[in-house]
Amino acid sequence: AQASAELERLARHAASEPLPGQDQLL
Hints:
Helix content is 73%, strand content 0%. The chain is mostly helical and 26 residues long.
């Protein structure tokens, strides 16, 4: 349960602050 919560937090953080490398992937 704790792992899923942490993954969700990381996912939201990545969505709010996308890495500069993601622009190339899109």
